[in-house]
């Protein structure tokens, strides 16, 4: 991917969402964000993608083991089949996962994963090495503690991954409040960001 393509903003037509190992067992390991806040961020990201019809890929590592199944809310929103990996820690080493990404024909990947320093970091590095433009959504990912999060962010940025947040992804995709997706994405913001919910409530109470 050339520098011009990497400078392009996200649109509903040039990216794919990868949700990696948001499994109920792994969620219990998260210590860098409050569980309720993390769940809200994850669903905000998923509903953003759903609202604009962007393709998504969901994967899980040994879901019948201690990692547990993928959060059912993710599957309910994205309506996708979960790719159950055979044991690969790095999702990019799963042919089924990698081929599902390739099949979309899109070179920008919006990624989130539990835990950040493994399930998100490893496939992000691998995808960048193969020419993909990766956006790591840190607040829809989680790990053991803030120190681990900060170290992982450094490694991601050193490799050329774009570190971002779910609301920033939404705004980048929306581009303009007058876009065809302005209203529906505004509703996603209202439902999943308490501060902006107050803004919208104030507006509509006039």
Automatic annotation (TrEMBL):
UniProt cross-references to InterPro entries, sorted A to Z: Hydrolase_YcaC-like, Isochorismatase-like_dom, Isochorismatase-like_sf
Name by which UniProt lists this protein: Nicotinamidase-related amidase
Domain Isochorismatase-like, chain residue ranges per copy: 17-167
Top-level taxonomic group: Bacteria
Organism expressing this protein natively: Pseudoalteromonas denitrificans DSM 6059
């Amino acid at each position: 991917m050339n520098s011009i393509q990497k400078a392009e903003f996200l649109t509903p037509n040039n990216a794919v969402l990868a949700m990696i190992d948001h499994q109920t067992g792994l969620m219990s390991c998260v210590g860098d964000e409050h569980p309720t806040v993390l769940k809200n961020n994850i669903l905000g990201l998923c509903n953003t993608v759903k609202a604009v019809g962007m393709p998504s890929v969901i994967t899980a590592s040994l879901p019948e083991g201690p990692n547990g199944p993928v959060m059912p809310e993710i599957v309910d929103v994205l309506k996708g089949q979960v790719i159950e990996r055979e044991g690969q820690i790095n999702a990019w080493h799963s042919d089924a996962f990698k081929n599902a990404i390739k099949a979309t024909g899109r070179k920008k990947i919006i990624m989130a994963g539990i835990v950040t320093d493994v399930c998100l970091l490893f496939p992000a590095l691998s995808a960048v090495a193969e020419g993909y433009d990766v956006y790591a959504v840190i607040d829809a990912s989680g790990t053991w503690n803030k120190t681990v999060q900060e170290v992982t962010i450094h490694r991601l940025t050193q490799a050329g991954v774009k570190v971002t947040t779910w609301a920033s992804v939404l705004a980048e995709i929306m581009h303009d409040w007058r876009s065809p997706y302005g209203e529906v994405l505004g509703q996603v913001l209202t439902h999943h960001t308490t501060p902006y919910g107050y803004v919208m409530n104030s507006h509509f109470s006039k």
